[in-house]
Specification:
The protein is of the alpha+beta class. The protein has helices spanning 7-29, 36-57, 65-90, 96-112, 120-150, 152-179, 191-227, 238-255, 269-276, 278-294, 319-335, 356-372; strands at 259-266, 301-306, 309-315, 342-348, 378-380. The termini are far apart.
Length: 384
């Protein structure tokens, strides 16, 4: 027998391969907590494909409902779970009603039809048609979210192979319609079925490793984001603010646009911790962070440098605007009922600065003068 037409052997290989992918996603459940719901759906998708292919490999005479209709039902149900998991992963609204409107009639048809050869053409058309529809709708619904989060290249890397598989499934459905009442079932020893199995193997490999890569990429981004954020206030931490300040300073050097930096410190903050406890102090810091964020533009950056000290980096901000903003912030903090006031040091980038550190050092020195001058004050570096 030619290996090119040994479809049952290829079905066994495909079923075993899908089982391995299901095991891979099962092991991933313990590690990928944030994507656990999506991973569980994908695990079930691969497991059901494995069941479907292995049942198809067992097809023989006399015909049994489980190996014919059951195989089709398992495969279609797997595709539906794949769509739901992909939508969960990308954060798009679930289309459960649409899925049920397609899935329930299809499963009812598989349950009602017999495994006999006379019913086979309708069953084959329904199986390929449902897989085509579900996969096409999956690609359509997740496409915009894929492009937004992972970029156009990654989106095309998912959509283009997926669309090719849609075309293959649709062509097989049309082939069965044209050949009616002849039967073109998956286990029949035809080269087209071997090609279909190879397409399934390639498609599921791309799906598994592609989405695993995206899960990992998302995890890395979130870990980096967490490493750049202050756990209490959600603002940038000192490390992130240093990086932001450096980028803004380099842009200032290129464009000669004004760049301002604030160092803000809450006056007598220790008294709150000593008298009301650290929980009360934490609440003040959180409210202070929210107050600062409300006053900033999209291009500005604010962070908690440590303790009760906050930094602001303000690109394209001339001195008079920076001083006006600093005074407005000082007044708002004093009137906010936080139980504290603030002192603010303001500095502007200068042509003679060797690096961004000199800018923040001058702002810190101005803050020290505000503290020495009685607190609840704004002081600047005094440069023109």
């Amino acid at each position: 027998m030619s290996a090119l037409t040994d479809v049952p052997a290829v079905l066994w290989v495909a079923g075993f391969q899908m089982g391995l992918y299901a095991l891979m996603w099962l092991l991933s459940l313990a590690l990928l907590r944030e994507s656990r719901a999506a991973v569980a759906h994908w695990m079930a998708f691969m497991a059901l494909l494995a069941v479907g292919f292995l049942l198809a490999a067992l097809r023989d005479e006399p015909r049994q409902w489980l190996t014919y209709n059951g195989a089709n039902a398992a495969t279609v149900l797997g595709f539906a779970l794949m769509r739901r998991g992909s939508e969960r992963f990308m954060g798009v609204p679930a289309h459960d009603r649409e899925q049920l409107a397609v899935l329930l009639p299809g499963l009812a048809l598989f349950a009602w039809l017999g495994p006999e050869r006379a019913d086979a053409p309708l069953r084959v058309v329904a199986a390929y048609g449902l897989q085509t529809l579900i996969l096409a709708r999956t690609l359509w619904t997740i496409r915009p979210a894929l492009a937004r989060e992972f970029g156009r290249r990654t989106m095309l890397g998912v959509v283009v192979p997926g669309t090719a598989l849609v075309a293959v499934l649709a062509a097989l459905m049309l082939r069965q319609i044209v050949a009616w009442p002849e039967v073109s079932e998956l286990q029949s020893r035809q080269r087209v079925n071997v090609g279909l199995m190879l397409t399934y193997l390639a498609g599921t490999a791309l799906f598994s490793f592609g989405f695993l890569t995206m899960v990992t990429q998302r995890l890395v981004v979130r870990l980096r984001e967490a490493s750049m954020r202050d756990a209490l206030t959600g603002l940038f931490n000192r490390r992130a603010m240093n990086e932001t300040l450096t980028r803004a300073w380099l842009r200032h050097r290129r464009t000669r646009s004004p760049l301002a930096a604030f160092v803000i410190d809450l006056d007598h903050f220790k008294r709150i911790n000593d008298s009301a406890g650290h929980a009360a102090g934490d609440a003040v810091l959180v409210r202070m962070a929210a107050l600062l964020q409300k006053q900033l533009r999209g291009e500005d950056a604010v962070g908690r440098a440590g303790g009760e000290e906050f930094w602001l980096v303000l690109p394209d901000t001339p001195r008079e605007h920076a001083l006006a903003l600093a005074e407005r912030l000082r007044q708002q903090v004093a009137a906010a009922g936080l139980g504290v006031t603030c002192s603010i040091g303001v500095a502007l980038a200068q042509a003679g600065d060797a690096d961004a550190g000199q800018l923040i050092a001058r702002a810190d020195a101005a803050l020290y003068r505000a503290k020495e001058g009685g607190r609840n004050r704004v002081e600047s570096d005094g440069a023109p």
